[in-house]
Design a protein that fits this description.
- The structure holds two protein chains of two kinds.
- By secondary structure, chain A is of the alpha+beta class.
- Chain A folds into five domains: 3-142, Four Helix Bundle (Hemerythrin (Met), subunit A) (Up-down Bundle), CATH 1.20.120.160; 178-292, Alpha-Beta Plaits, CATH 3.30.70; 367-425, Helix Hairpins (Orthogonal Bundle), CATH 1.10.287; 428-606, Histidine kinase-like ATPase, C-terminal domain (Heat Shock Protein 90, 2-Layer Sandwich); 611-745, CheA-289, Domain 4 (OB fold (Dihydrolipoamide Acetyltransferase, E2P), Beta Barrel).
- Chain A is built from 23 helices and 23 strands.
- In chain A, helix 2 packs antiparallel against helix 3, helix 3 runs parallel beside helix 5 (111-125) and helix 4 crosses helix 5 (111-125).
- The longest helix of chain A has 28 residues, at 308-335.
- Chain A is globular.
- The model of chain A is unreliable at 130-180, 274-285, 298-322, 331-360, 563-573 and 751-760 (pLDDT under 50).
- By secondary structure, chain B is of the alpha/beta class.
- Chain B has one domain: STAS domain (Transcription Regulator spoIIAA, 2-Layer Sandwich).
- Chain B has four helices and five strands; from the N terminus they run αββαββαβα.
- A three-stranded parallel beta sheet of chain B has the order 1-3-5, with helices on one face. A two-stranded parallel ribbon of chain B has the order 2-4.
- The longest helix of chain B is centred in the middle third of the chain and has 16 residues, at 49-64.
- Chain B starts with a helix and ends in a 15-residue tail after the last helix.
- Classes of the chains: A alpha+beta, B alpha/beta.
- The interface between A and B is large, with 39 and 38 residues.
Chain lengths: 760, 99
């Protein structure tokens, strides 16, 4: 593993740590005072600092150091984590993220901002209260370009008083004495906590590693050990007093406990040479000297071997292997942080027994590889469909063994596909977490006080959807805070909580993911929207629009109701861009707004962009696929159930209720006149906006899983059509956009450019 | 005393006594309480701190019950690990293997 790979791992770890940091800070912000939360936050910053130090990322280290110092004050209860303190900390977390990104991609950071924060953090650490009013920090002009992070610098020591570079031990003071005479003796009090074991760490292995450093004697304190019936077998009762004489000194001992230091009480001290004797003598309990050959404890060690010679060579090999592994692990741990090291170590060390068990639950895979796999599986599905079709066509009497084989193949393909899709499914949490930052920054600039509440963060959705979700969401959040929420004074005057609330929710609903963004602001000012639309010639001055139609005007290009164009939003590219990106994902966006109470934007997106269970139907000689998730039931209409309604509308009565009958062929302009309902089949569908419709098609061909091929990417957007697919016979079939068709049936045109419909 | 007449039981330890094994070992020992016990640790290849704790807690309980608790046979790795972690089991070793 070369340095760049380790560095890449470090940055990946940083991302995780930053997420951890932010969620921890937010918990604290919500009043969580669990010391473990504070610890987690501290740990995150500490790890980032540690890794950054090894790569010579000085900016990152110095900022993380100040941050860490302040967090330490919180940890040791010297600093009360009030809202004001946390505000500074959350901003610091943002800057830390910026610095990390800058170090990775060579971007620039707002130095003025980080300097301000460093001052604030230092002030907090010194026990001063933060300045109540802070100047808005983010001024893009002030952003000084920062040089890209240098490649790993080896010689250059970290300019930090608590550097993470190994500090060379100076023997200068002992020049008079023969070299190697003085070997420091280190005393360790090691008291594991329950977590140490729960995380798969093994005290025995730690002690073994210490014993490898040099001469070790150990005393095991069993005083707290209860009797068998009163004990919890997974609790930590033993604690150890260790004395080890090693060239590697205190640092060497510390590095052994590096992985475990959070889960144990640890006290490591070097004792002066002349005191060594006294201390050990003062020790009331006799320490047990440790056996010299510990190779038995390694995985490779063979127990009960009758042949001593063989055993010895085995043991020697095992020791050598373990040493190499330890060296690799140590080198790596200096280079990257804990977890990176354990990844490096687990690759290298079969000899490092149990420790690997703690890691190795997940693997990191290049997204490209997964994408390639998914593509291939998609092709496999199509191919398999083609194969079964040609078998059916060529072999009318159907040899049962071939058919059985085909069925099994189909099942397997299906399973492979599901598993591959599961690889791509990710919780929306990271995107939501990014939104928290957006909210903070905009709240800061606009001088509004905003609280972001997120729900359903663990809702899983395909990675491509997640990646493309961030941008439209950011736009919408900006809008919600900038335009939606009122200023605190105004809110107070209206009898609302001066702190505005933005609620971001994700949930699964009928095979799609629904993301809702609700604010409790003023709602859409319909009069203003209408006027603006008239001014911009979007609608006629005397147009009679429903409230819903007015609300949907904001999705039009070139529309912004903000009187002045601010930095954040209101450049008039906002909502139409949002709508287009959501549509590109095969999603829909709708809005509902109540004056004085706020607006709710609802986005509904497909869970995956790759496959779909569909019903293959024929309409006017064309083959279409209707997403199965939309279909409630299918039925054969009877003449008595069909009722005419108005000039051209028809209703179908289903179990004593009426449901509009929609001729799909007519809506999509496949035919000029309405077909006879008795000749076709009705598909009862549930539409996004609620309510059922009966879609009329000519015939049902069957039900199958289809691989979605984007129509936009390969051709162009077709109203009423969501995407396309390739059928078993190699023909292209169109996938119906049920909601668009349903909306069109309400008398609204399918043509997008003049559509005022909420659906896309 | 009735308990003195209780039959001597024996327990053979599994080769790997790692973190996952502690609860099971605890259960096994609890089931043997009240009887003199001889533990066979000759197959042990690896023993972790949690299992060592359980064994020592067992020794303590047996002592309270005034029952004998001995290690009949021990493997080399078992002895060495115990030594490594500073747990002295010399007094618990069966006479014949004491040196």
């Amino acid at each position: 593993m070369d340095m760049n790979e380790i560095k890449e791992i470090f940055f990946q770890e940083c991302e995780e740590q930053l997420a951890e940091l932010e969620s921890g800070l937010l918990k604290l912000n919500d009043g969580d005072r669990d010391p473990e939360t504070v610890n987690a936050v501290f740990r995150a910053v500490h790890s980032i600092k540690g890794g950054a130090g090894a790569f010579g990322l000085d900016d990152l280290v110095s900022f993380a150091h100040v941050f860490e110092t302040t967090l330490d004050c919180v940890r040791s209860n010297k600093l009360e984590p009030t809202q004001d303190v946390l505000k500074v900390m959350l901003k610091s977390a943002d800057v830390l993220a910026d610095l990390t990104n800058a170090a990775r991609d060579g971007g620039s950071v707002d130095e003025a901002r980080s300097r301000t924060l460093i001052r604030e953090l230092e002030a907090l650490a010194n026990g001063e209260t933060p300045a109540a009013a802070e100047a808005p920090a983010a001024k893009p002009a002030a952003a000084a370009p920062k040089a890209a992070a240098p490649a790993p610098v080896v010689e250059k020591p970290v300019v930090n008083d608590e550097g993470f570079q190994p500090i060379p031990f100076s023997f200068g003071d002992f020049d008079d004495e023969p070299a190697g005479h003085y070997v420091p003796t280190v005393q360790v009090v090691f008291k594991p906590k329950k977590d140490l074991y729960a995380k798969g760490n093994e005290a025995v292995l730690l002690l073994r590693d210490v014993s490898r450093l040099g001469d070790m004697s150990v005393y095991c304190d069993m005083d707290s050990l209860p009797t068998l019936d009163k004990m919890n077998p997974e609790e930590a009762y033993f604690s150890w007093k260790i004395s080890v004489t090693s060239e590697k000194g205190e640092d060497g001992v510390r590095s052994v406990f590096e992985f475990a230091e959070w889960d144990c009480d640890l006290d490591i001290n070097t004792i002066e040479e002349d005191v060594v004797g006294e201390v050990t003598e003062d020790e009331e309990q006799p320490m047990q000297p440790v056996p010299f050959d510990l190779s038995m404890l390694d995985e490779g060690g063979s127990a009960g071997n009758d042949e001593p010679a063989v055993m010895e060579s085995d043991a020697a090999a095992a020791v050598a292997a373990a040493e190499t592994a330890t060296k690799v692990a140590q080198a790596a741990s200096r280079a990257a942080d804990n977890k990176a090291a354990s990844a490096a170590a687990s690759a290298a060390s079969a000899a490092q027994a149990n420790q690997a068990a703690a890691a190795g639950q997940t693997i990191r895979v290049d997204l490209d590889r997964v994408d390639r796999l998914i593509n291939l599986v998609g092709e496999l599905v199509i191919n398999q469909a083609m194969l079964s079709q040609s078998v059916v066509e060529n072999d009318a009497n159907g040899t049962s063994s071939i058919n059985m084989g085909l069925e099994e193949l189909q099942q397997l393909t299906r399973e492979i596909q599901d598993s591959v899709m599961a690889i791509r499914a990710q919780p929306v949490k990271p995107v939501f977490q990014r939104m928290a930052r957006t909210v903070r920054e905009i709240a800061d600039i606009t001088g509004k006080s905003v609280r972001l509440i997120t729900e359903g963060e663990n809702t899983e959705v395909d990675k491509t959807v997640i990646d493309k979700l961030a941008e439209p969401l950011t736009h919408m959040i900006r809008n919600a805070v900038d335009h939606g929420l009122e200023m605190p004074e105004k809110r107070e005057a209206l009898g609302k909580n001066p702190e505005g609330t933005v609620r971001l929710t994700a949930k699964h609903r009928s095979g799609r993911i629904v993301i809702e963004l609700a604010d409790d602001g003023a709602g859409i000012n319909r009069e203003k929207v209408r006027q603006k639309a008239i001014d911009n010639d979007l609608i006629a001055a005397d147009a009679n629009l429903s409230d819903e139609e007015i609300d949907n005007l904001i999705f039009h290009a070139g529309f912004s109701t903000a009187d002045k164009v601010s930095d954040l939003s209101g450049r008039g590219v906002g909502m139409d861009v949002v709508k287009r990106s959501i549509q590109a994902l095969g999603g829909r966006i709708s809005i509902s707004s109540k004056p004085g109470q706020g607006s709710v934007f609802t986005m509904s997106l497909p869970l995956t962009l790759a496959v779909l269970d569909g019903m293959v139907v024929t309409v006017a000689g064309q083959t279409l696929v209707v997403p199965l998730t939309a279909i409630v039931e299918t039925l054969q209409p009877e003449a008595s159930a069909i009722h005419s309604f108005g000039a051209s509308q028809r209703l179908i009565s289903i179990r004593n209720s009426f449901c509009p009958l929609v001729d799909v062929g007519r809506i999509l302009n496949f035919r000029a006149t309405q077909a006879n309902p008795m000749d076709g089949v009705a598909l009862l569908v549930e539409s996004e906006g609620g309510g059922q419709r009966a879609l009329m098609v000519d015939a049902i061909q069957g039900q199958r899983q289809v691989v979605i091929k984007s129509l936009e990417a390969n051709y162009t957007h077709v109203p009423g059509i969501a995407a396309a697919t390739i059928l078993g016979d190699g023909r292209v079939a169109l996938i119906l956009d049920v909601d668009a068709v349903v909306a069109a049936s309400r008398g609204q045109s399918l043509r997008q450019d003049i559509s005022l419909a909420a659906t896309g | 005393m009735a308990s003195k007449k209780a039959a001597q039981k024996s327990l053979s330890l599994a080769p790997v006594l790692d973190l996952n094994e502690a609860t099971a070992l605890h259960k096994q020992l609890m089931g043997l309480k009240g009887n003199p016990l001889v533990i066979d640790a000759s197959a042990v290849e690896r023993v972790g701190a949690l299992c060592a704790q359980v064994l020592m807690a067992g020794a303590k309980s047996w002592e309270e019950d005034r029952q004998s608790f001995t290690f009949g046979k021990v493997s080399d790795p078992f002895m060495k690990t115990m030594q490594l972690i500073g747990v002295n089991i010399d007094h618990l070793l069966a006479q014949e293997i004491r040196q």
